[in-house]
Design brief:
Layout lengths: L2 E2 L9 E10 L2 E4 L1 E2 L13 E5 L4 E11 L5 E9 L4 H4 L7 E6 L1 H20 L4 E6 L4 E6 L6 H13 L4 E7 H6 L17 E7 L6 E4 L14 E10 L2 E8 L2
Parallel strand pairs: 1-4
Antiparallel strand pairs: 2-3, 2-8, 3-7, 5-6, 5-8, 6-7, 9-10, 10-15, 11-12, 12-13, 14-15
Helix pairs in contact: 2-3
Length: 247
């Protein structure tokens, strides 16, 4: 099992860890700050710093899977190609320092939080999501047209308002009793521990509240200037909204 430190503190940039094992898909650590691809958010990249000062570049992070293809409670740190000789010196029990590419992660955190603001502006079910360092998109299950300029202005207002974000949890039973909290039609919140992680934006004025396992900034002002770059009609019942950085 990998202790997922990023769940409680998305601002951790590195941590000391121990190698549990090395397999074909990647390196499993006992604890990590690396977020694995999931919920539409891209996996982290970064480095594993060895005791002798050498570094293993990590190109991606994924959830480990069992023989049946189901996600486990371990995380795979996927090395960039061309490091076979260095990887050959790594063994179970070795101590390493896991360090994420913080600039890339921070862009993911800002975009992910912006998609929650978009859910506030477009209160419709989401049937697709992708969050990368360069852009983010949400596919809304709806038939009505959307206005690019109006959404951009709405996002700017919510960002400038500096709404705080807090991480919490509800029980599986509470979620079952309030299924409308799950806004995604394609991704279900992670279960298995009896509680489900939640993200709340806003204090006195509630902006968004939903189950989410991703990483986010602590205040909407930290998102910075984002704009709606494109709105597409993907089908009769789907409207895609693409976010980008303001130039």
């Amino acid at each position: 099992m990998t202790d997922e430190l990023f769940r409680s503190d998305a601002y951790l940039r590195d941590c000391d860890a121990r190698v549990l094992r090395i397999e074909e898909g990647g390196i499993v650590l006992d604890r990590t700050v690396f977020y694995p691809q999931g919920g539409g958010q891209a996996g982290d990249s970064g480095w594993l710093l060895l005791a002798d000062g050498r570094e293993i570049a990590i190109a991606d992070t994924r959830k480990a899977k069992d023989a049946e293809g189901k996600a486990t409670h371990e995380i795979l740190h996927v090395p960039a190609p061309g490091q076979e000789a260095l990887l050959g010196t790594l063994k179970a029990g070795d101590s390493v320092k896991a360090r994420i590419d913080w600039e890339r992660r921070h862009r993911l955190m800002r975009f992910h939080t912006a998609t929650h603001l978009l859910c506030h502006l477009v209160p419709q079910p989401v049937n697709g999501c992708s969050i990368t360092p360069e852009y983010a998109r949400l596919d809304f299950h709806m038939t009505e047209p959307l206005d690019k300029e109006a959404l951009t202005a709405g996002l700017a207002q919510l960002v400038a308002a500096g709404h705080p974000l807090s991480v919490g949890a509800i029980t599986d039973a509470e979620l079952d009793a309030n299924p409308a909290l799950v806004k995604s039609m394609s991704v279900q919140p992670p279960r298995g521990t009896g509680t489900v992680r939640t993200i709340r934006i806003g204090d006195a004025a509630l902006i968004d509240f939903q189950p989410c396992g991703g990483t986010h900034v602590a205040n909407t002002r930290e998102i910075g200037a984002v704009v709606v770059t494109k709105i597409e009609k993907k089908s009769a019942n789907s409207r895609r909204v693409v976010l980008g950085w303001a130039t």
